[in-house]
Amino acid sequence: MTLSRRDLLAASAALLAGPGALQRAAAREQPAGGPIVLCWNENPYGPSPAARVAVSESIAQGCRYPSDEELAALTGMLAAREGLSADHIVTGTGSGELLCALGLLYGRDGGEIIAAQPTYQELTHYAERAGAVLRWLPVDAQLRHDLPAMHAAVGARTRAVYVCNPNNPTGTVLPAAQIRDFVRSLPAPVVVIVDEAYMDFVATGASGSVADLAGSGARVVVLRTFSKIHGMAGLRCGYAIAPPQIAADLAGARMSTANLYAVRAARASLGDSQFLIACRQRILASRARITAELSRRKLRYAEPQGNFVFFDTGMPLERFSALMRERGILVGRLFPPFDTWCRITIGTEPEVTAFLGALQQIGAGA
Questions:
Q1: Rounded to an integer, what distance in angstroms lies between the CA atom of residue 284 and that of residue 269?
Q2: Which terminus, N or C, of the chain has the lesser number of Cβ atoms within 10 Å?
Q3: Residues 145-171: pLDDT tens digits?
Q4: Does domain 5-48+273-363 have CATH number 3.90.1150.10?
Q5: Measured between alpha carbons, how far is 183 from 19 in angstroms, rounded to an integer?
Q6: 97-134 pLDDT tens trace
Q7: Cα torsion at 200, 219, 238, 267 (round to 10°)?
Q8: Given pLDDT bands bounded at 50, 70 and 90, which one contains residue 34?
Q9: pTM of the full predicted structure?
Q10: What distance lies between CA 180 and its chain's CA centroid?
């Protein structure tokens, strides 16, 4: 894993600072006596203090729908952050809903969608149910999207290409310049869907967003979520950035709108930069701890750029998961064809310590 000097110094400072408010908040929310949950790529430190206040102050209005003005205010904040007009932004109940809507738009009636294997499957599963033809391309030797192979696979029936960057479950990332070139190289009818759910965890200089392409007329949709760095997985809020006509089509395919608490928490979280920076620092520091131990144990792993690490356990994943469960830790599911690989979510510092201790026990033949 490559971190800048600034990232390393910040991450080290976060660890040396001790548990602090973030750690205490996360500890309070762990179920008493329950397992350590390291299987869903959640942020154990969120929501932010500002988002929590926004939700708590809104309980009395739980009988109300979010107003058009509130929804427009959130859209306006997001548009301003992206440097685009509001007609480029579509909000939804998590980026997952928008991925499903995109799967419906481009997969129905036998439309072909190209995707990597393995990758996040919310879009692809929903598209298949809508009648799509899925064309899977294996990741390359570094477990990254193989863009040349994906480009070569585009044919007359192809409607969309799905690129999860950083990729889930491998955690690998492609440089933004490569994705930009890829988008520009495709024939006009094809839309590139770029899922940037984990972009906030990318090491400095490793990649960047391509959301600005939406303002240049390129046929691209970029997805973002409040479920990861913002710690709002349970509240469900996300958004898409796209050219206005594609954004309008996507908005028409949505199944719902974000709830009152999600809208208000999202607006508050966007302004809580101190919390977001602290989360990033802690997660990157813990990510470095995990990869250092995997390197020491000579266990292969994909270069991680999300809030999780994908590594080869050296045994069938079913057995590894059972051994971890015996030690009170839940780890990620199987992602074929990587039958011995595990996706481990980065939890709090004590949770990471528990995972590394369990890994040592299992490696010792326990």
A1: 20
A2: C
A3: 999 999 999 999 999 999 999 999 999
A4: yes
A5: 43
A6: 999 999 999 999 999 999 999 999 999 999 999 999 99
A7: 80
A8: confident
A9: 0.91
A10: 20
3-class DSSP state for residue 179? helix
Is 51-270 in CATH node 3.40.640.10?
A: yes
Please list, residue by residue across 29-65, b when 16 or more beta carbons sit within 10 angstroms of its beta carbon and e when fewer do: ebeeeeebbbbebbbbbbbbbbbbebbeebeeeeeee
User: Residue 240 pLDDT more than 60?
Assistant: yes
| 281's tokens | 């620092």
3-class state of residue 116 by DSSP? strand
- Residue-wise DSSP of 127-176: HHHTTPEEEEEE--TTSS--HHHHHHH--TTEEEEEEESS-TTT-----H
Kindly list the domain boundaries of the chain, sorted by start residue: 5-48+273-363, 51-270
Residue 158, C-beta contacts closer than 8 angstroms, at least 6 positions apart:
112, 113, 114, 135, 190
- Do the Cβ atoms of 195 and 163 come closer than 8 Å? yes
Greatest Cα pair distance, the chain, in angstroms, is 60
Q: E strands within 17-150? A: 36-37, 89-92, 112-117, 133-138
Residue 114 tokens read as 């190209």
The tens digit of pLDDT for each residue in 57-101 reads 999 999 999 999 999 999 999 999 999 999 999 999 999 999 999
